[in-house]
Design goal:
Layout (H helix, E strand, L loop, with lengths): L2 H17 L45 H8 L1 E16 L6 E14 H5 L4 E11 L3 H4 L18 E12 L4 E8 L39 E10 L6 E10 L19 E10 L2 E2 L3 E17 L10 H4 L5 E15 L11 E11 L6 E12 L9 E11 L4 H9 L9 E10 L6 E11 L10 E11 L1
Antiparallel strand pairs: 1-2, 1-17, 2-3, 3-4, 4-5, 5-6, 6-7, 7-8, 8-10, 9-10, 10-11, 11-12, 12-13, 13-14, 14-15, 15-16, 16-17
Length: 461
Protein backbone atom coordinates (compact mmCIF):
# COMPACT_ATOMS: atom_id res chain seq x y z
CA UNK A 1 0.00 0.00 0.00
CA UNK A 2 1.27 3.46 -0.87
CA UNK A 3 2.15 5.85 2.00
CA UNK A 4 -0.73 8.15 1.09
CA UNK A 5 -3.15 5.25 1.42
CA UNK A 6 -1.75 4.34 4.84
CA UNK A 7 -2.47 7.89 5.98
CA UNK A 8 -6.02 7.58 4.73
CA UNK A 9 -6.64 4.35 6.64
CA UNK A 10 -5.23 5.89 9.83
CA UNK A 11 -7.39 8.98 9.40
CA UNK A 12 -10.56 6.93 8.93
CA UNK A 13 -9.75 4.84 11.98
CA UNK A 14 -9.22 8.00 14.00
CA UNK A 15 -12.30 9.85 12.79
CA UNK A 16 -14.69 8.61 15.46
CA UNK A 17 -12.24 8.69 18.37
CA UNK A 18 -10.14 11.70 17.48
CA UNK A 19 -12.90 14.01 16.35
CA UNK A 20 -15.64 12.41 18.46
CA UNK A 21 -18.06 13.25 15.68
CA UNK A 22 -18.77 13.99 12.07
CA UNK A 23 -21.36 14.86 9.47
CA UNK A 24 -23.17 14.31 6.20
CA UNK A 25 -23.17 15.53 2.62
CA UNK A 26 -20.36 17.95 1.87
CA UNK A 27 -21.07 20.25 -1.01
CA UNK A 28 -21.69 18.06 -4.05
CA UNK A 29 -19.41 18.11 -7.05
CA UNK A 30 -22.37 17.24 -9.30
CA UNK A 31 -24.02 20.46 -10.55
CA UNK A 32 -27.28 18.63 -11.26
CA UNK A 33 -27.81 17.79 -7.59
CA UNK A 34 -28.35 20.25 -4.75
CA UNK A 35 -27.38 18.32 -1.62
CA UNK A 36 -27.98 19.53 1.90
CA UNK A 37 -25.33 22.06 2.87
CA UNK A 38 -24.36 20.41 6.14
CA UNK A 39 -20.69 20.97 5.46
CA UNK A 40 -19.37 24.53 5.26
CA UNK A 41 -19.28 25.74 1.66
CA UNK A 42 -16.31 26.95 -0.32
CA UNK A 43 -17.06 30.60 -1.03
CA UNK A 44 -13.65 31.92 -2.11
CA UNK A 45 -11.34 31.08 -5.04
CA UNK A 46 -9.19 28.04 -4.25
CA UNK A 47 -5.41 28.17 -3.90
CA UNK A 48 -3.31 27.08 -6.87
CA UNK A 49 -2.43 23.83 -5.09
CA UNK A 50 -6.07 22.72 -5.19
CA UNK A 51 -7.28 20.26 -7.80
CA UNK A 52 -10.55 20.91 -9.68
CA UNK A 53 -13.39 19.60 -7.53
CA UNK A 54 -11.22 19.06 -4.45
CA UNK A 55 -12.61 20.08 -1.05
CA UNK A 56 -10.53 22.73 0.70
CA UNK A 57 -10.80 24.95 3.78
CA UNK A 58 -8.88 27.27 6.07
CA UNK A 59 -5.91 24.88 6.33
CA UNK A 60 -5.42 25.03 2.58
CA UNK A 61 -3.75 22.01 1.02
CA UNK A 62 -2.60 20.54 4.36
CA UNK A 63 1.04 21.18 3.50
CA UNK A 64 0.65 19.41 0.18
CA UNK A 65 -0.94 16.31 1.71
CA UNK A 66 -4.47 17.03 0.53
CA UNK A 67 -3.63 17.16 -3.21
CA UNK A 68 -1.59 13.96 -2.88
CA UNK A 69 -4.50 12.19 -1.20
CA UNK A 70 -6.86 13.56 -3.84
CA UNK A 71 -4.64 12.21 -6.60
CA UNK A 72 -4.81 8.81 -4.87
CA UNK A 73 -8.61 9.01 -4.89
CA UNK A 74 -9.46 10.41 -1.45
CA UNK A 75 -11.22 13.74 -0.96
CA UNK A 76 -11.77 14.61 2.70
CA UNK A 77 -14.45 16.88 4.17
CA UNK A 78 -13.79 18.12 7.70
CA UNK A 79 -15.70 20.98 9.27
CA UNK A 80 -17.74 22.45 12.08
CA UNK A 81 -20.99 24.43 12.04
CA UNK A 82 -22.45 26.46 14.91
CA UNK A 83 -25.85 28.10 15.46
CA UNK A 84 -26.40 30.64 18.24
CA UNK A 85 -29.96 31.88 18.89
CA UNK A 86 -31.84 34.02 21.41
CA UNK A 87 -35.45 35.17 21.60
CA UNK A 88 -36.08 38.89 21.81
CA UNK A 89 -39.84 38.43 21.83
CA UNK A 90 -42.19 35.51 22.42
CA UNK A 91 -41.84 32.25 24.29
CA UNK A 92 -42.30 31.49 27.95
CA UNK A 93 -38.94 32.98 28.96
CA UNK A 94 -35.88 34.72 27.54
CA UNK A 95 -33.02 32.39 26.74
CA UNK A 96 -29.86 31.93 24.66
CA UNK A 97 -28.78 28.55 23.33
CA UNK A 98 -25.87 27.41 21.21
CA UNK A 99 -25.76 24.22 19.13
CA UNK A 100 -23.23 22.75 16.75
CA UNK A 101 -22.34 19.88 14.48
CA UNK A 102 -19.02 18.32 13.53
CA UNK A 103 -18.30 16.78 10.15
CA UNK A 104 -15.79 14.15 9.08
CA UNK A 105 -16.16 12.42 5.74
CA UNK A 106 -14.36 11.19 2.67
CA UNK A 107 -15.32 10.65 -0.95
CA UNK A 108 -13.37 7.94 -2.76
CA UNK A 109 -12.71 7.87 -6.50
CA UNK A 110 -12.56 4.15 -7.22
CA UNK A 111 -11.00 4.76 -10.63
CA UNK A 112 -7.98 6.43 -9.05
CA UNK A 113 -7.82 3.97 -6.17
CA UNK A 114 -8.51 0.65 -7.85
CA UNK A 115 -9.03 1.28 -11.56
CA UNK A 116 -12.83 0.88 -11.37
CA UNK A 117 -13.99 3.43 -13.92
CA UNK A 118 -17.18 5.26 -12.88
CA UNK A 119 -17.03 4.01 -9.28
CA UNK A 120 -17.43 6.32 -6.27
CA UNK A 121 -17.74 5.57 -2.56
CA UNK A 122 -18.46 7.81 0.40
CA UNK A 123 -18.37 7.56 4.18
CA UNK A 124 -19.54 10.38 6.45
CA UNK A 125 -19.88 10.70 10.20
CA UNK A 126 -21.89 13.32 12.00
CA UNK A 127 -22.26 14.67 15.54
CA UNK A 128 -24.63 17.29 16.97
CA UNK A 129 -24.55 18.98 20.37
CA UNK A 130 -26.41 21.62 22.32
CA UNK A 131 -29.99 22.48 23.39
CA UNK A 132 -32.80 23.85 21.23
CA UNK A 133 -34.03 27.41 21.80
CA UNK A 134 -37.49 26.28 20.67
CA UNK A 135 -37.64 23.88 23.62
CA UNK A 136 -35.73 25.82 26.26
CA UNK A 137 -37.55 29.12 25.71
CA UNK A 138 -40.95 27.58 24.98
CA UNK A 139 -41.30 29.36 21.63
CA UNK A 140 -44.10 27.08 20.47
CA UNK A 141 -42.91 27.19 16.84
CA UNK A 142 -43.50 24.23 14.56
CA UNK A 143 -40.17 24.80 12.79
CA UNK A 144 -36.87 24.96 14.64
CA UNK A 145 -35.08 28.31 15.00
CA UNK A 146 -31.83 26.29 14.80
CA UNK A 147 -32.06 23.78 11.95
CA UNK A 148 -29.09 21.69 13.14
CA UNK A 149 -30.94 20.20 16.10
CA UNK A 150 -32.31 16.72 16.64
CA UNK A 151 -31.66 12.96 16.40
CA UNK A 152 -29.57 12.84 19.58
CA UNK A 153 -26.15 14.01 20.72
CA UNK A 154 -24.29 10.98 19.40
CA UNK A 155 -21.92 10.10 16.58
CA UNK A 156 -23.96 8.91 13.59
CA UNK A 157 -22.97 7.10 10.43
CA UNK A 158 -24.87 9.23 7.93
CA UNK A 159 -23.43 7.97 4.66
CA UNK A 160 -21.76 4.71 3.66
CA UNK A 161 -22.48 4.02 0.02
CA UNK A 162 -21.09 2.92 -3.30
CA UNK A 163 -22.13 4.39 -6.65
CA UNK A 164 -21.37 2.98 -10.08
CA UNK A 165 -21.96 4.88 -13.30
CA UNK A 166 -22.52 3.22 -16.66
CA UNK A 167 -22.72 4.27 -20.32
CA UNK A 168 -20.41 7.24 -19.89
CA UNK A 169 -22.33 8.44 -16.79
CA UNK A 170 -25.70 8.19 -18.54
CA UNK A 171 -26.86 5.74 -15.84
CA UNK A 172 -25.97 5.65 -12.14
CA UNK A 173 -26.75 3.13 -9.41
CA UNK A 174 -26.09 3.96 -5.75
CA UNK A 175 -26.54 1.52 -2.82
CA UNK A 176 -25.78 1.66 0.90
CA UNK A 177 -26.69 3.82 3.87
CA UNK A 178 -28.26 6.99 2.51
CA UNK A 179 -30.12 10.01 3.95
CA UNK A 180 -33.20 10.61 1.79
CA UNK A 181 -32.39 14.29 1.34
CA UNK A 182 -29.02 13.46 -0.19
CA UNK A 183 -30.74 12.59 -3.48
CA UNK A 184 -34.43 13.59 -3.29
CA UNK A 185 -35.88 17.05 -2.69
CA UNK A 186 -32.34 18.16 -1.85
CA UNK A 187 -32.03 21.77 -0.81
CA UNK A 188 -29.16 23.79 0.63
CA UNK A 189 -29.03 24.74 4.32
CA UNK A 190 -27.76 28.31 4.14
CA UNK A 191 -30.56 29.76 6.30
CA UNK A 192 -30.71 29.03 10.04
CA UNK A 193 -34.45 28.29 10.34
CA UNK A 194 -35.53 24.75 9.53
CA UNK A 195 -38.24 26.09 7.20
CA UNK A 196 -35.50 26.75 4.63
CA UNK A 197 -33.23 23.76 5.09
CA UNK A 198 -32.88 20.37 3.39
CA UNK A 199 -35.92 18.33 2.35
CA UNK A 200 -39.10 19.93 3.73
CA UNK A 201 -40.86 16.57 4.03
CA UNK A 202 -38.14 15.37 6.37
CA UNK A 203 -38.67 18.39 8.64
CA UNK A 204 -42.43 18.34 9.25
CA UNK A 205 -44.54 16.17 11.50
CA UNK A 206 -46.01 13.40 9.40
CA UNK A 207 -42.94 13.01 7.20
CA UNK A 208 -40.14 12.75 9.74
CA UNK A 209 -41.37 9.33 10.88
CA UNK A 210 -40.25 7.75 7.60
CA UNK A 211 -38.46 10.36 5.42
CA UNK A 212 -35.07 10.15 7.14
CA UNK A 213 -32.98 13.21 6.31
CA UNK A 214 -29.46 13.64 7.63
CA UNK A 215 -28.24 13.00 10.25
CA UNK A 216 -30.50 9.93 10.04
CA UNK A 217 -30.14 7.46 7.18
CA UNK A 218 -31.47 4.11 5.98
CA UNK A 219 -30.50 1.20 3.78
CA UNK A 220 -31.41 2.28 0.29
CA UNK A 221 -30.79 2.08 -3.44
CA UNK A 222 -31.14 4.87 -6.01
CA UNK A 223 -31.15 4.52 -9.78
CA UNK A 224 -30.70 7.56 -11.99
CA UNK A 225 -30.72 8.41 -15.69
CA UNK A 226 -28.95 11.63 -16.76
CA UNK A 227 -30.13 13.67 -19.75
CA UNK A 228 -28.10 15.74 -22.20
CA UNK A 229 -24.94 15.25 -24.15
CA UNK A 230 -22.91 16.46 -21.16
CA UNK A 231 -25.16 14.53 -18.73
CA UNK A 232 -26.06 17.83 -17.04
CA UNK A 233 -29.37 18.75 -18.67
CA UNK A 234 -31.46 16.99 -16.01
CA UNK A 235 -32.30 13.54 -14.75
CA UNK A 236 -34.94 11.02 -13.80
CA UNK A 237 -34.39 8.92 -10.70
CA UNK A 238 -36.16 6.49 -8.39
CA UNK A 239 -35.18 5.21 -4.96
CA UNK A 240 -36.14 2.57 -2.42
CA UNK A 241 -35.49 3.33 1.29
CA UNK A 242 -36.21 0.98 4.16
CA UNK A 243 -38.53 2.40 6.84
CA UNK A 244 -37.08 1.39 10.18
CA UNK A 245 -37.68 3.38 13.36
CA UNK A 246 -34.54 1.91 14.90
CA UNK A 247 -32.53 4.02 12.45
CA UNK A 248 -33.43 7.13 14.46
CA UNK A 249 -32.57 5.64 17.85
CA UNK A 250 -31.12 8.65 19.77
CA UNK A 251 -28.69 6.37 21.60
CA UNK A 252 -27.17 4.40 18.70
CA UNK A 253 -25.93 6.03 15.52
CA UNK A 254 -24.27 2.93 14.07
CA UNK A 255 -27.16 0.47 13.95
CA UNK A 256 -26.86 -1.30 10.59
CA UNK A 257 -29.18 -4.30 11.02
CA UNK A 258 -32.15 -4.68 8.68
CA UNK A 259 -34.38 -6.10 11.42
CA UNK A 260 -37.17 -3.83 12.58
CA UNK A 261 -38.23 -2.67 9.13
CA UNK A 262 -41.90 -1.89 8.64
CA UNK A 263 -41.99 -1.05 4.94
CA UNK A 264 -40.26 0.99 2.27
CA UNK A 265 -40.42 4.52 0.94
CA UNK A 266 -40.28 4.86 -2.85
CA UNK A 267 -39.53 8.40 -4.10
CA UNK A 268 -39.39 9.46 -7.76
CA UNK A 269 -37.90 12.74 -9.00
CA UNK A 270 -37.41 14.40 -12.37
CA UNK A 271 -35.23 17.47 -12.82
CA UNK A 272 -34.41 20.01 -15.50
CA UNK A 273 -31.18 21.94 -15.00
CA UNK A 274 -31.01 24.76 -17.57
CA UNK A 275 -28.33 27.41 -17.89
CA UNK A 276 -29.96 30.36 -19.63
CA UNK A 277 -27.54 32.30 -21.79
CA UNK A 278 -24.70 30.21 -20.40
CA UNK A 279 -24.56 32.36 -17.27
CA UNK A 280 -27.90 31.89 -15.49
CA UNK A 281 -27.97 28.35 -14.09
CA UNK A 282 -30.95 26.89 -12.27
CA UNK A 283 -32.83 23.70 -11.45
CA UNK A 284 -36.49 22.70 -11.55
CA UNK A 285 -37.51 19.49 -9.76
CA UNK A 286 -40.82 17.70 -9.41
CA UNK A 287 -41.22 14.57 -7.35
CA UNK A 288 -43.43 12.39 -5.25
CA UNK A 289 -43.32 9.34 -3.04
CA UNK A 290 -45.30 6.53 -1.47
CA UNK A 291 -44.53 4.74 1.80
CA UNK A 292 -45.83 1.24 2.53
CA UNK A 293 -45.73 0.92 6.34
CA UNK A 294 -48.92 0.46 8.32
CA UNK A 295 -50.11 3.82 9.66
CA UNK A 296 -53.13 5.21 11.51
CA UNK A 297 -55.65 7.79 10.41
CA UNK A 298 -54.95 11.15 12.00
CA UNK A 299 -58.43 11.87 13.38
CA UNK A 300 -60.88 9.00 12.77
CA UNK A 301 -61.00 5.49 14.22
CA UNK A 302 -62.14 2.34 12.42
CA UNK A 303 -65.79 3.19 13.13
CA UNK A 304 -65.41 6.69 11.71
CA UNK A 305 -65.60 8.41 15.09
CA UNK A 306 -63.18 11.10 16.23
CA UNK A 307 -60.30 9.49 18.10
CA UNK A 308 -60.24 12.37 20.60
CA UNK A 309 -63.79 11.38 21.59
CA UNK A 310 -63.68 7.58 21.32
CA UNK A 311 -60.19 7.15 22.73
CA UNK A 312 -59.56 4.49 20.07
CA UNK A 313 -56.54 4.51 17.73
CA UNK A 314 -56.94 5.89 14.25
CA UNK A 315 -58.13 3.55 11.52
CA UNK A 316 -55.18 1.58 10.11
CA UNK A 317 -54.15 2.01 6.48
CA UNK A 318 -51.16 1.82 4.16
CA UNK A 319 -50.05 4.27 1.53
CA UNK A 320 -48.68 7.47 3.03
CA UNK A 321 -47.60 9.73 0.18
CA UNK A 322 -46.78 13.22 -1.00
CA UNK A 323 -45.62 15.42 -3.88
CA UNK A 324 -43.25 18.35 -4.19
CA UNK A 325 -41.85 20.99 -6.51
CA UNK A 326 -38.54 22.79 -6.03
CA UNK A 327 -36.76 25.36 -8.11
CA UNK A 328 -33.82 27.75 -7.88
CA UNK A 329 -32.81 30.18 -10.58
CA UNK A 330 -30.01 32.65 -11.07
CA UNK A 331 -31.68 35.93 -12.08
CA UNK A 332 -28.55 37.90 -12.98
CA UNK A 333 -25.46 36.54 -14.74
CA UNK A 334 -23.28 34.21 -12.66
CA UNK A 335 -20.99 32.26 -15.02
CA UNK A 336 -19.31 30.37 -12.15
CA UNK A 337 -22.58 28.84 -10.95
CA UNK A 338 -25.71 29.35 -8.88
CA UNK A 339 -25.29 31.83 -6.00
CA UNK A 340 -21.70 32.65 -6.97
CA UNK A 341 -22.51 36.26 -7.78
CA UNK A 342 -25.54 38.46 -8.35
CA UNK A 343 -29.20 37.74 -7.57
CA UNK A 344 -30.90 34.35 -7.34
CA UNK A 345 -34.23 33.04 -6.05
CA UNK A 346 -35.79 29.78 -4.88
CA UNK A 347 -39.28 28.37 -4.43
CA UNK A 348 -40.25 25.12 -2.67
CA UNK A 349 -43.72 23.58 -2.30
CA UNK A 350 -44.50 20.30 -0.54
CA UNK A 351 -47.79 18.48 -0.01
CA UNK A 352 -48.18 15.48 2.33
CA UNK A 353 -51.18 13.19 2.56
CA UNK A 354 -53.96 14.56 4.75
CA UNK A 355 -54.87 11.17 6.14
CA UNK A 356 -51.80 10.82 8.35
CA UNK A 357 -49.82 14.08 8.48
CA UNK A 358 -50.36 16.85 11.02
CA UNK A 359 -48.60 19.24 8.60
CA UNK A 360 -50.16 18.80 5.18
CA UNK A 361 -48.25 21.48 3.22
CA UNK A 362 -45.40 23.94 3.26
CA UNK A 363 -44.28 26.58 0.80
CA UNK A 364 -41.14 28.72 0.95
CA UNK A 365 -39.67 31.41 -1.28
CA UNK A 366 -36.51 33.47 -1.00
CA UNK A 367 -33.90 35.73 -2.63
CA UNK A 368 -30.12 35.76 -2.29
CA UNK A 369 -27.78 38.54 -3.43
CA UNK A 370 -24.12 37.49 -3.64
CA UNK A 371 -21.61 40.32 -3.82
CA UNK A 372 -23.00 43.02 -1.62
CA UNK A 373 -20.54 45.91 -1.41
CA UNK A 374 -17.21 46.88 -2.94
CA UNK A 375 -14.59 44.45 -1.71
CA UNK A 376 -17.24 42.03 -0.37
CA UNK A 377 -17.86 40.01 -3.54
CA UNK A 378 -18.50 36.76 -1.62
CA UNK A 379 -20.81 38.12 1.11
CA UNK A 380 -24.54 37.49 0.77
CA UNK A 381 -27.78 39.20 1.75
CA UNK A 382 -30.70 36.77 1.82
CA UNK A 383 -34.37 36.86 2.78
CA UNK A 384 -36.97 34.08 2.81
CA UNK A 385 -40.55 33.49 3.93
CA UNK A 386 -42.34 30.21 4.59
CA UNK A 387 -45.88 29.09 5.34
CA UNK A 388 -46.34 25.84 7.23
CA UNK A 389 -49.97 24.69 7.23
CA UNK A 390 -51.67 22.38 9.74
CA UNK A 391 -54.02 19.79 8.24
CA UNK A 392 -57.58 21.16 8.04
CA UNK A 393 -58.86 17.73 9.14
CA UNK A 394 -57.66 18.65 12.63
CA UNK A 395 -59.95 21.66 12.96
CA UNK A 396 -62.82 19.76 14.56
CA UNK A 397 -60.42 17.92 16.85
CA UNK A 398 -58.77 21.24 17.74
CA UNK A 399 -62.12 22.80 18.68
CA UNK A 400 -62.74 19.96 21.12
CA UNK A 401 -59.21 20.33 22.49
CA UNK A 402 -59.76 24.07 22.96
CA UNK A 403 -62.99 23.39 24.88
CA UNK A 404 -61.05 20.95 27.07
CA UNK A 405 -58.31 23.51 27.70
CA UNK A 406 -55.68 21.44 25.93
CA UNK A 407 -55.07 23.92 23.09
CA UNK A 408 -55.21 27.74 23.21
CA UNK A 409 -56.75 27.94 19.74
CA UNK A 410 -57.60 26.16 16.50
CA UNK A 411 -54.52 25.69 14.36
CA UNK A 412 -54.11 27.12 10.86
CA UNK A 413 -50.79 28.32 9.41
CA UNK A 414 -47.45 29.33 10.87
CA UNK A 415 -45.40 31.95 8.97
CA UNK A 416 -41.66 32.43 9.26
CA UNK A 417 -39.51 35.21 7.82
CA UNK A 418 -35.70 35.21 7.98
CA UNK A 419 -33.23 37.92 6.98
CA UNK A 420 -29.51 37.05 6.77
CA UNK A 421 -26.23 38.79 6.11
CA UNK A 422 -23.54 36.16 5.44
CA UNK A 423 -19.94 37.27 5.78
CA UNK A 424 -17.11 35.33 4.12
CA UNK A 425 -13.89 36.79 5.56
CA UNK A 426 -11.58 34.08 4.13
CA UNK A 427 -11.94 30.83 2.24
CA UNK A 428 -13.60 28.18 4.42
CA UNK A 429 -15.29 30.51 6.94
CA UNK A 430 -18.82 31.90 6.83
CA UNK A 431 -20.53 33.97 9.56
CA UNK A 432 -24.23 34.73 9.14
CA UNK A 433 -26.04 37.05 11.57
CA UNK A 434 -29.79 36.72 11.09
CA UNK A 435 -33.18 37.80 12.39
CA UNK A 436 -36.21 35.49 12.39
CA UNK A 437 -39.82 36.52 12.81
CA UNK A 438 -42.35 33.81 13.61
CA UNK A 439 -46.00 34.73 13.07
CA UNK A 440 -48.75 32.53 14.57
CA UNK A 441 -46.38 30.20 16.47
CA UNK A 442 -47.70 26.66 16.44
CA UNK A 443 -50.09 27.83 13.69
CA UNK A 444 -52.29 29.49 16.38
CA UNK A 445 -53.34 33.03 15.49
CA UNK A 446 -53.72 34.10 19.13
CA UNK A 447 -50.19 33.01 20.08
CA UNK A 448 -47.63 35.75 20.70
CA UNK A 449 -45.34 36.26 17.73
CA UNK A 450 -41.66 35.32 18.09
CA UNK A 451 -38.67 37.47 17.17
CA UNK A 452 -35.33 35.69 17.43
CA UNK A 453 -31.78 36.71 16.65
CA UNK A 454 -29.17 34.27 15.52
CA UNK A 455 -25.68 33.74 14.19
CA UNK A 456 -25.00 30.78 11.91
CA UNK A 457 -21.32 30.16 11.33
CA UNK A 458 -19.25 27.44 9.72
CA UNK A 459 -15.63 26.56 9.18
CA UNK A 460 -14.14 23.90 6.94
CA UNK A 461 -10.64 22.56 7.34
Amino acid sequence: MKPANLIVVATLACSGACFGAASANAQTQDPTVQTEDIAPTQSQPQPLQARPGMSIGVLGDWGGLRPRLYDEGFDFQVGYGNELAWNMRGGTKRDVTDIGQIIVGTSIDMDKLAGVKGGTAKVTLFYRHGPSLNINAGLGLIQQVQEAYGRGEIVRLVEAWYQQSFADDRVRLKVGRLPANGDFASFACDFQNLSFCASPQGNVQGGISYWFSAPASAWAAVGRYNFGGDRKAGYLQVGVYQTNQKNIDPTNGFRLALSGGTGVMIPVEAAWTPNFGGSKPGYYKVGGWVETSRANDLTRDAQGDLTIVSGEPGAPFRGRHGVYFEMAQQLTPSPEGLDRTGLSMFFNATRLDRKSSMIDSQIAVGLTQTGTFAGREHDQIAVAIARTHVNDRLRLTDRIAVDQGVLPGVRGSEYLIELDYRIVPIAGIKIGPNVQWGVNPGAIASARNVVAGGVKSSISF
